[in-house]
Amino acid sequence: MKTLPAKISWAVKLCLSPVAVWQMLLTRLLEQHYGLTLDDTAFSDETVIKEHIDAGITLADAVNFLVDKYELVRIDRRGFSWQEQSPYLRAVDILRARRAIGLLRRSINDAVL
């Protein structure tokens, strides 16, 4: 019996639908940055996510709209700063979430199966 390398699990992640990727990222981002669950938002409905994707709305814009609408405050920032801290998500927040949930390769060598 032939065994397959562990890297196959990474290849399976490539087959995720855009809706599934959004759900995974939203779950991580909402919890980490705002203390919310996916069920606390309209994004618990897959059709809402699909509508956003089809309309060309980015993940950051979708979350930042919620920030504006509900005046959300980020819970992941500690201490005070001389600069006002923005409540909005940035591209780096999404990249960190992608890495944390395994959707971002760490190096080019990870692509070799």
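(ticket continues) Second input and output from the same batch:
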Amino acid sequence: MRFTGPTSLTAFFVQGLLVSSVIARRNNINRCPEPCSLSINPHDWIDYHTLDRLTWCNETMILDFAIYTPLDDTDKQSTIFACKANDKNTIHGNDQYQLAVSDELLEETTLSLEGGTWGTHAALPNDDLTQVTINSVKTWLVGSPRSHQDHIFGSSGKTVVGLYIGSKIQRATAVDSVAEQMLKYIEQKGISSQIVLQHCGSNADYILGMVINMDGDLPNVQQSVRTWSDGQCVQGFDNEAQFSEIFVPVAPTMKASGLRLKDKISADSYRLEGRETTCDYIQVVSGDSCGSLVQKCGITAAELAKYNPDPNLCSTLAVGQYICCSQGDLPDFSPKPYPNGTCYTYQAQAGDYCAKIASEHSLSVDDIESFNPETWGWMGCNNLQLGQRLCLSKGDAPFPAPIANAVCGPQVPGTKQPGNDGPSLWVGLNPCPLNACCNVWGQCGITPEFCSVTKSPTGNPGTAAPGSNGCIDSCSLLVTNIEAPDQFATVGYFLGSNTEDRECLTLDAWFMPTQQFTHIQFGFGDIASDYSISVKKGNDQFNFFKSMGGFKKIISFGGWEFSTSPQTYQIFRQGVKEENRAKRVEMLTVELLKSTTLKP
């Protein structure tokens, strides 16, 4: 933060206890994010960086974040994308979810459900937040056209819900069935501290689950969803819970049609270097084993070993790894830089972690770390954030992804990369007004949470140490006046109504130490709907104030509830309209000076 103006200003607050007015104004601000209907992509939602910030909103929210970056780990940053659930349709999306592999034939399958609870049972609260949150999460996930979106979270007050549906399970039917079973259980048994409902399939593609926590423990809910994404089931219940079977269309596990080379080339032709002898291949998902891969490929174990001759294959399977299901070689999936010199750029998804990303792109984790020495916001593989743009090849660092609520820095929506300037020069884009500090999340302020420079272990631009917001531009709290003014101004503030509103700690205008001030501001004058002026509260004090000398006089209009009260808040708003400006200016200047004596 830099102040370089020619004036030094000292504020004197005689009766300036403004805390209550600040709180009043805050209570009239909508503390919730924008509606979910504005975007189907969680990356476009408002992002928050502390769990406490979520408690500001008193409505139902849909949430998404990196499930492999624990929210309760104090050694890591948190990025939580949030939107406000709509009253009707949570998003504009598809009515019917299509599986990622569209040519698979679905089979109506009976799925057994199991689960359990933690804590004692209690009656469902009358506020109905549990049902509202479940329905909002269900509506969002069913409507999302994002085929890779296998999970979502929701919160309302202290009710937190997590939902996971494996990619081979027909989403719409499964979500409806799971929500129905959970609500039925709660209606019959009551609510507990935490309830889990799940189907333990063979791997992550065939698992589904819903978790409800009534203590606002989002990290615990995150852990359950991460467990399902890992192809495992949640365990350790205090009490077992019984649920009915459900009937859901599911893709068969045998002979999945692998992603052929020709399909991949058409989608991303510059990435792959194919050969005529390319094999048919599939990818490993969480929970897979060589046995399940044999079933997926529709081949024998001997053929799997023949097509994939690595003797350690079965003990080193990695999520995202490509496996040959026929004779031939795997293509090279390692990305190449773009023609303009920028590295191949990948945007992290909620279920990503570096080992998975590396396997999917024929890379190692060390490769990813080495490709990102200057990438904006890169805090390392151990602190991967949802929406992070990162390099998966050599090349220049990519311009960072926009942040919907950023007001400063390079991530303000609509900001274009300036020529060939690198990340070190992006910090000055969209500076804060009045040279205020800009933190790494694109927010302006003048306190340590905006102005203190910190870095993550990577030291990359746009990063901050865990538990801090860092600063990228106009940093530090040092106030610097380059040159002294010809004379200093010292301003005092006097609340005229203090003698009427308080039984003690009052002060008459006559007793102000006027010799200490060049200017004194009087609060407050009143403005009527016709823009006539008066002083209703503290009029006697105003008369004293007018008659005093030795300083310049200032009067403030409005104050306290004037700007928010239904009876008066429109006066300022109407007064700035073009048709009212001239009259308002005349009343506030000419008429004021005629009717009062505000001269030294």
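Agent notes: The first strand starts at residue 9 and ends at 13. The chain has 16 helices and 22 strands. Closing as not reproducible unless the customer responds.
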